[in-house]
Each structure stands twice: as structure tokens, then as C-alpha cells.
Amino acid sequence: MPELAGKELRIVGFLCNWCSYGGADTAGVGRFKQPTDLRIIRVPCSGRIDPLFVVKALINGADGVLVSGCHPRDCHYSDGNYYARRRLEMLKQFLPFMGIDGKRFHYTWVSASEGQRWQKVVTDFTRQVHGIGPLHEKKEAAK
Amino acid sequence: MNAQELRKAAKEVLPSVDVVIGQRAGFDPLHAEPCFATKPEDVDDFIASPLCVHNLASYLPSLKGKKVAVVVKGCDSRTVVQFLEEGLIKRENVTVIGVPCSGIISVKKVLERVSHEPIQSISFDNETVTVKTNKREEKIPLLEVAPGKCTTCQYPNPLIFDVLVGQKLEPRGSAEAVYDDIREFETKSLEERKEYWEKTLGRCIRCYACRNACPLCVCQESCIAETRDPHWMSQKDDPKEKMTFHMIHAIHLAGRCTECGECERVCPMDIPLGQLKKKINMGMKELYDYVPGINPEEKPPMYVFKVEEDKIEEHELS
């Protein structure tokens, strides 16, 4: 990832325990190369993700937030990701109104077997956030 | 709006309920205050005029279990409907006295108009407000001193009522015009919007009046803004904390806010808080074809889902 060398950004990832966290693990076990900007937080289900987690992260120092859960119809708890989808879509539309670029926030679905898809999601999202640049002042990013 | 008719209707309802909530003249000619009538003579204090700014439906969830009659304007009736949608009140316990409304005043705007001179009297005649101060008398068209919600009012008539007092009225302007201010704001660049909100929300003194007055903020003393450990926000006087608080308020009202304008009315710093909620409501209409507080049989969009969503598409990364 030469374009990222030396200037990492802070990206927070909320991954559901059953699919996406497994998917990220699969990518790791498969030794797929991934950008290192992402800090992963494991949650029981994408339905656990309060849109305010994303807001709080973005306001308090994150440059981007990635949310990933089980594909629709595959939720471990049957319908958590359907509720998540409604809430996160609402947030996605609301953020630009507050002056936060909607591209800093992405939500998607990755299953436990999709190591390669995970690699692609992380790489593309990291590139997208780098395209916009840091959200917060430099001194904070360097901490 | 006719006070005599309202009092008559309230007196008829009173024997079958524990309390009738209306409004009466307040501490000065410009203010009205909520009035909880339990005796017929209390009802004689009721007024019906553009001074009745309070959304009295706000009291309903806290009076759960009691038989309550409440006087509502068109906009307030949406709050009642929203409570029913969310199961916060029982229909059989509530008697709704509906009053069609042609607009209310904004106390702040009236005071600004008369340069904050002490007001001696205020009277209303056919959409004209006559304000007398100790120095002058001024006639102002009602809409010039009405809150923003009245200028594009789509629901002048109560959507739910058991007793209707007065004649039904026509909506003001087109339904699209309601969100014109939001669309205009969205023509600004991201930086301009960020700057605007930092400046505007920067005025916030975190008195939480907006939350306390909000009829749909039913958590109140267990609000996540103050009660969780670790805290969502610190006590620090910082734009970030203010932004967090207002995002909490707005997001918790997603698909619930009936745009009654109480948050803006009570804000001591005159922050246009309704805009945040209006923006989310715009999205709710587009994404889920849902308008809060219209149909008591509906469920708010965040309470339900569709396996195949009609309007939500996967977002591509660039």
C-alpha cells in the first residue's frame, strides 16, 4: 500500500461476531494483505450497533467508520441486520447534513467465509477515506 | 379559536375524566400556561388563542393510568397519534378535544418586534396581532411573528379527536414547501454546513430544555446523555460534546419526531434544533414512505423492517 506509507488514518470498524469478525479472521488466516488503519471492535450483532457509536467515533477522533454484519437473511439472530440496515441508512443520509462527509461512513455485509471480500472492503474503504483526508486536526491524529 | 366553545366542550367532558388539560393566561399578557382542570370552575380559565403555544400532548405518557382529556391543536394531535403508534398511551384513557388552529405566536419573535419593551396587552383579529407596549402600539401580521412550523402548516386540523371545537381550516402552502429550508441548506458545501453547525450548536448551554420539553423524549431521567457509565459525553464545555448531545436527541427521534417545534420554542439560545429532525424526517419519507404522527395503525420505521427494502441499495466504495 505505497500511497498509505507513513500517514495512517484512524478508522474504526464495528464487526458482528458471527459473520464479519469471522470474515476478517479468515482474511488474516489466509494472510491477505490489508491496510492497517482499521481498529476493529467486535459486537454481538450488527443490530447491536447504535448509530450513535458511529457518531461518537467520528466526532471524537475517527476519520472513518466501517460497519459490517451478516448478509441479509444470514443474521445469526435472524433479523438483527435488518434493523441495523434501516438505522444505518438513516445515519448515512443524516451525516452530510451535519457537515460530515457520508463517505467517511460505510456499512456492508461480509460473511465468515468471505476473506477475500473482507480484504477488498477494507482496502477500498481505507482508500476512500484517504481520498478525503483526515477529519480532525493533525496533532490529534499523531497522538 | 373560540374560548367559550372550548370551555363548554371541556365542561361536558370533565365528568368522565380525571383531568382536562388546557391553557390559561400566564404571568404576563404574552404568555399562556398549561392548566390542569379538575373542577368545572378551573375550566373557566381556559383560553383559545394564538398564545396557546404549548404542546399539551406532552403530558400524556406521564399521566398513564389516569383518564385524561387534552386540548390539542393540529400539530399537537400528531404527537397523540405518535404516542398511540408507539403504545405509550391507551386510546380509551385519552379524550382528545381538537381545536383547528390558524397559527400561534412565537414569544421570541414578538418581543424582538417590539424591541423587548414591556408588553401591556396583546389581541388577535383575523391573522393580525395587535401588541401594546408602554411606548407604542403595533399591528403585525400573525405569520410574521409565528414560529416556522406555522408558515408551512399542513395539519391545521387535529388528525385525531373526540370533540372538535370550531371550523376546519385549509393547510397553508404546499406539502413540498415544508422542507424547502432543508433543501436550501443542503445546497451549501460540507465545510459550510460543518462551520454553520459548529457555530450554531456552539451557542448551546446544555440546559437540556429541548430534551425536557420534547414530547417524544419519553426516557427523561434515564436519558442516555446523562445516565450511562461510562458517560456518552463529559461535562466539558466543548463543541464536540454539544454536537454529540444534539445528535443523540436527533437520532433518538428518527421516524418519531412530529415537528411540533417544542425544542425550538424552549431553546434559550434560539438554536434551530427542528432542522436536524426535519432532515431526518425527510429521509424517513423518502426511504420508508413514512410520516410520523399521521396514522395510529402504522408502526414507526425503526420498529419494523422489510426483508427486501424498497429504497435501500448497497453502497459502493469508490
Radius of gyration of chain B, in Å, reads 20 Å
Beta content of chain A: 15-25%
Largest interface: A-B, 36 and 41 residues
User: What is the count of distinct domains of chain A?
Assistant: 1
The gross shape of chain B turns out to be: globular
Please provide a written account of the structure.
The complex is a heterodimer of chains A (about 140) and B (about 325). The longest helix of chain A has 18 residues, at about 115-130. In chain A, helix 1 (about 20-30) links the parallel strand 1 and strand 2 (about 40-45). In chain A, helix 1 crosses helix 4 (about 115-130). Chain A has 5 helices and 4 strands, in the order E-H-E-H-E-H-E-H-H. In chain A, strands 2-1-3-4 form a 4-stranded parallel beta sheet, sandwiched between helices. Chain A has a single domain (about 10-135), classed as Rossmann fold, CATH 3.40.50. Chain A has helices spanning about 20-30, 50-60, 80-95, 115-130, 140; strands spanning about 10-15, 40-45, 65-70, 105-110. By secondary structure, chain A is an alpha/beta fold. The radius of gyration of chain A is 15 Å and the shape is globular. Chain B is α/β, with parallel strands linked by helices and about 325 residues long. Chain B has a domain at about 175-310. Chain B contains 12 helices and 8 strands. Chain B has helices spanning about 5-15, 40-45, 75-85, 105-115, 150, 180-185, 190-200, 210-215, 225, 240-250, 260-265, 275-290; strands spanning about 20-25, 30-35, 70, 95-100, 120-125, 130-135, 135-140, 165. In chain B, the strands form 2 sheets. Chain B has a 5-stranded mixed beta sheet. Chain B is globular, with a radius of gyration of 20 Å. The termini of chain B are far apart. The interface of A and B includes residues 89, 96, 108, 125 and 128 of A.
